[in-house]
Specification:
- It contains ten helices and 13 strands.
- The chain is globular.
- It has helices at residues 14-31, 46-50, 62-67, 122-132, 154-162, 173-182, 184-187, 212-224, 232-237, 253-264, and strands at residues 3-6, 35-37, 55-59, 73-80, 90-91, 93-98, 113-115, 146-148, 169-172, 190-195, 199-200, 204-206, 240-244.
- A six-stranded mixed sheet has the order 2-1-3-12-4-13.
């Protein structure tokens, strides 16, 4: 059975996209599992990708993974190389402003406009909303005058921050790493004023219909790639130290956090 692979969530630049294709080709050869790369570019909804029965390797956000029924198979999750992640498969949301704006901390932007991607996104919606609860649950609703969205993709969040459509934009910290690696001139125009709590990184998954032994072969290949000298350049281009096995229980907290934020903040739609 020919399975499909997709890295849209982290194909942030052409260079990153090319590196993901090389990685998936190596995994297919090493595992003996046939994979065909599937283009599923925005604005095509990610939900239609995740609903496919022939996914072999595709990124899914942790929140929709935790809420899915049936859940897809967890294959592995990337461990980003920067030291802020402590060699763990985790990430956060960097709350970004344009570098030349006067904001020194998030509170300086209260009363302004904050962006969001889609409601099922952990990094682009749920995490920043939950983060705002620390400023007082009884005042969280009024902290920003406008929530601008759906912006759908991290790239559109970046553009909205830079063109002044929004004052603050939530950016997946691993997307931020890839941006800094491949588009340093764009990253230099942005500045982090606060970051959310670390949560498990979006995993690579296979559809629930895929056989367990196929998933195991894909997992073994991913977990071994950091020891393969030929993959060093690919992993460097992807800002990845290694891949790690993850458990569904790692993601179980995310729906609770989303519900807690929804309880205290109004829907943006």
């Amino acid at each position: 059975m020919l399975l499909v692979a997709n890295a849209r969530m982290y194909a942030v630049t052409p260079q990153a996209g090319a590196a993901w294709r090389k990685l998936f080709a190596w995994v297919a050869e090493t595992s003996g599992v046939a994979l065909s790369y599937l283009d599923h570019a925005a604005p095509a909804p990610l939900e239609t990708l995740w609903a496919r029965s022939d996914l072999g390797l595709a990124f899914i956000c942790g929140l929709p993974f935790a809420s899915a029924a049936p859940q897809p198979h967890l294959v592995a999750a990337p461990v980003p190389a920067p030291t802020r992640y402590d060699n763990l498969p985790r990430y956060c949301t960097d709350l970004m402003v344009r570098a030349d704006r006067p904001f020194a901390r998030l509170g300086d932007a209260f009363g302004g406009r904050i962006g969001w991607t889609v409601e099922h996104s952990q990094s682009g919606y749920s995490a920043p909303r939950h983060h705002l609860l620390r400023y007082g649950r009884d005042r969280a609703e009024a902290l920003f005058a406008q929530w601008i969205g759906p912006l759908v993709t991290p790239r559109r969040v970046i553009e909205a921050v830079l063109d002044g459509t929004i004052d603050v934009g939530p950016l997946d910290s691993y997307v931020h790493d890839l941006l800094a690696r491949h588009e340093p001139e764009t990253a230099a125009r942005l500045r982090v004023i606060e970051s959310t709590t670390m949560t498990p990184n979006p995993p690579l998954v296979a559809s629930a219909a895929v056989a367990d032994d196929t998933v195991a072969r894909l997992r073994r290949a991913l977990l071994s790639c950091a020891a393969e000298p030929a993959m060093a350049g690919v992993l460097d281009a992807l800002c990845i130290a290694r891949f790690a096995a993850v458990d569904p229980a790692d993601y179980a907290e995310l729906p609770r956090r989303a519900g807690e934020a929804d309880e205290h903040l109004p829907s943006v739609t």
